[in-house]
Amino acid sequence: MGAPKQKWTPEEETALKAGVIKHGTGKWRTILSDPEYNSVLKSRSNVDLKDKWRNISVTALWGSRKKAKLALKGPSSSSSTAITIVSLANGDDGGQHIYALPPPAASSEPPRPFQVPFTSVDKIIIEAITNLKKPFGPDGKSILRYIEKNYKTQPDMKRLVTSRLKYLTNAGTLIKLKHRYRISPSYMAGG
Amino acid sequence: MGAPKQKWTPEEETALKAGVIKHGTGKWRTILSDPEYNSVLKSRSNVDLKDKWRNISVTALWGSRKKAKLALKGPSSSSSTAITIVSLANGDDGGQHIYALPPPAASSEPPRPFQVPFTSVDKIIIEAITNLKKPFGPDGKSILRYIEKNYKTQPDMKRLVTSRLKYLTNAGTLIKLKHRYRISPSYMAGG
DNA sequence: CGGTAGGGATAGGGTTCT
DNA sequence: TAGAACCCTATCCCTACC
Question: What integer is the mean pLDDT of B20-40?
Answer without folding.
Answer: 92
